[in-house]
Design brief:
This protein is α+β, with helices and mostly antiparallel strands. It is built from 14 helices and eleven strands. A six-stranded antiparallel sheet has the order 3-2-1-6-5-4.
């Protein structure tokens, strides 16, 4: 009777944990927030209680498995400090989730950066446990002996763990990601109950991630420029406002680069707008490929483009803009001999927050003035405010 009572009590606690995590996942459609909620559920003392956890997503287009987020301490000292703080402040799951929404410190951690740098082939199941978990679609519990088999795997090398649990995330019978968890600080053994609980959480997590990805795809299509697939003018205004608010809150710099094709009217008048559109598409692709992942490349209108550069001061923005200007000058655009200089060139204007303005409109005006200055200095030039 006592045993049954204990079992019922444990089941009640487990269901309560899963209910709390699934409720939290329903509060947002932002992928980063959902990933954080999932991993917090895996690592929180009021959740599944693993020491650290990582989340990988399947990129079917490129046939790779990509690290997206990692939560956990990098040392025993860091772990004890975090656990003490949680205990003293009596932080529950909601508190931990809200801490993420109000701070980017989790994303800036060394462990998260390491996880995000990992990319492995989907089909290398003999060498990589992530690939095996994706292809088999089954939980993978690796003890110290099994881990040795995958000693060349970048994930195993990075984690240096003696025991690992890999659980596939599924949406409509398709594996779209993997949770990897371990207890590298406490060395608590991974039990059958741990595997069962993480599998139940993974079933909900896979659907939440798919819903988020579908939402982000819808947003992207709604806010993309039809010709270039860059962010359109309306979404540029939204992004600039959002990034400026972040910069103010974190006391970071933010730069805006405005780019205009030199003498584009000559090209359009000679060859027509359809050929001109081809140039715009090629330039958009080049700008996207040559920009950093955190930057926002937008089509401002006509032959004018903008790039929002978060956490970037004027000096760094100038170096980025100059590199782009030279790359564009070297690129073999279609029929570029029609341009007065026998090649396509651009003029670029830079403005930086906070010195060039406190409002988005101020930054746009300042960047435009820099652009006109570049034009007046003979084009194919970068100028700062």
């Amino acid at each position: 009777m006592n045993k049954l009572k204990i079992e019922l009590e444990r089941t009640k606690i487990e269901l309560g944990i899963l209910y709390e995590i699934s409720n939290a996942m329903r509060t947002t459609l932002k992928l980063d927030e959902i990933l954080y909620i999932i991993l917090t559920g895996v690592t929180a003392h009021t959740g599944l209680g693993f020491n650290r956890a990582m989340l990988f997503l399947v990129n079917e287009k490129e046939r790779i498995i990509e690290g997206k987020m990692g939560i956990g301490p990098e040392s025993g000292e860091e772990a004890n400090a975090a656990w003490t703080k949680i205990e003293e402040e009596k932080m529950d799951l909601d508190d931990l989730i809200n801490a993420f929404k109000n701070s980017s410190s989790v994303l800036e951690s060394g462990f998260n950066r390491q996880v995000r740098s990992l990319k492995v082939s989907m089909y290398d199941k003999n060498e990589n446990p992530l690939s095996l978990a994706v292809l088999e679609g089954m939980p993978l519990h690796l003890t110290s002996q099994a881990i040795q088999k995958y000693s060349n795997s970048p994930v195993i090398k990075m984690l240096e763990s003696s025991e690992l649990l890999l659980i596939p995330l599924k949406a409509k019978d398709r594996v779209n990601g993997i949770i990897v968890a371990d207890n590298f600080i406490t060395n608590d053994p991974i039990t059958k109950d741990d595997i069962r609980m993480l599998t139940m959480l993974a079933n909900q997590a896979g659907l939440a991630i798919e819903n988020s990805q579908l939402f982000e795809l819808t947003v992207e299509r709604a806010h993309s420029d039809y010709l270039t697939n860059l962010w359109n003018h309306g979404y540029f205004q939204y992004l600039l406002q959002t990034e400026m608010e972040k910069a103010k809150a974190t006391k970071n710099k933010l730069s805006l680069v405005t780019i205009d094709i030199d003498n584009f009217k000559v090209y359009n008048d000679t060859l027509g707008h359809q050929i001109g559109d081809k140039i715009l598409k090629d330039l958009a692709q080049l700008l996207r490929n040559q920009s950093r992942k955190m930057d926002h490349v937008c089509r401002y209108g006509g032959e004018e483009f903008t790039i929002i550069l978060p956490q970037t001061d004027q000096k760094e923005a100038y170096m980025i803009a100059e590199r782009l200007r030279v790359d564009i000058q070297k690129y073999p655009f279609l029929n570029e001999g029609i341009f007065p200089n026998k090649m396509l060139t651009v003029s670029l204007g830079i403005a930086t927050f906070p010195e060039n303005g406190q409002l988005p409109a101020d930054l746009i005006t300042s960047s435009d003035k820099s652009l006109y200055k570049a034009k007046s200095q003979g084009r194919n030039t970068t100028c700062c405010s």
